[in-house]
Specification:
Layout (H helix, E strand, L loop, with lengths): L2 H11 L6 E3 L7 E2 L6 E10 L10 H19 L2 E11 L4 H15 L5 E9 L3 E10 L15 E5 L4 H10 L8 H12 L5 H7 L5 E4 L4 H12 L2 E5 L7 H6 L2 H10 L6 E5 L4 H10 L4 E8 L3 E5 L19
Parallel strand pairs: 4-5, 9-12
Antiparallel strand pairs: 1-2, 3-6, 4-6, 7-10, 7-11, 8-10, 9-11
Bound molecules: adenosine-5'-diphosphate and magnesium ion.
Length: about 325
Amino acid sequence: MEFRLIDRIRERTALGREDVRLGIGDDAALLAVPAGQELAVAIDTLVEGVHFPQGTAPADIGWKALAVNLSDLAAMGAVPAWALLALTLPQPDAAFIDGLADGFAQLAQPHRLALVGGDTTRGPLTLSVAVHGFVPPGQALTRAGARVGDAVLVTGTLGDAAAGLRCLQGPMQTDARTSMRDVLIDRLNRPMPRVAAGLALRGRASACLDVSDGLLADLGHLCDAGGVGAEIDAALLPRSPALLGLFDEVAARDFALGGGDDYELCFTVPVARVAEVQIDLARLGCGATRIGSIVAGEGVRVRDADGRWLEPGRAGWDHFAA
Ligand code: ADP
Ligand code: MG
């Protein structure tokens, strides 16, 4: 469909890469995987009203559609290289496309990621981005591999995106707290994929995944994959000043445990390596916080600040569960 729309996308995302032998414009892209590398591929779809609120700025939509996919590459310890974009639009709209492509490019450029093709169709606003990255054979981080006794860590802070969504749904605030609200909404709309952190974890993390559905759900997947359990201390959960400034302790804890869309990395490392990993991730800007340990058994248990185990059935966070 609409070739001019595709041209607009191509112009705005143009980026030279040696390994792109043929990019947007032919029936298929031709790409050269560097010798000695494995190809890591992932795809995620964002549907308006489901994965981002109606009324989200086009540039934020373009950014987020790429960010959630780069986050998957980050969680594998892969270096991003190429992307495809399948775009479904209610109607051809040049201004909307320009915004979307600009938001996509803002994140693609620092990662030297080339958009090499896609598809454009008419229908309810939906974006599917497929990403491709490289990882040396045997060095990818996977969900399996956590060992009993390993420390459980997360990058950055948790709960901000879910709290940002709550802010969008609530009444506008016009006092000094507006800036904290904006910080949380920005975390929802412009997640920062932890690509550099994922690379730094190669050869160190025993297991890793990104937190897209909420810490409890995702750490649960990591535990299932490794045949282990985890014990988490709610008091150790890293929470941002904005989250703690706008929500009480229990709400902030529940956002951090159950809220999705943070796109931080959750990973396990042998205890002896925790300090070294924390120093390196602090240097990369996101930092990493130890929140608990891997234990024998299955499932994730959460100890509250008073030392008691939280009961999923009664705690406020079970309604977030996917
Ligand atoms: P075909 O029908 O042969 O698949 P299309 O008209 O769908 O061709 O696409 C023409 C070219 O534009 C192809 O190279 C395709 O990869 C690219 N393209 C189409 N839509 C997009 C998009 N939303 N983003 C990037 N490239 C796109
Ligand atoms: Mg096509």
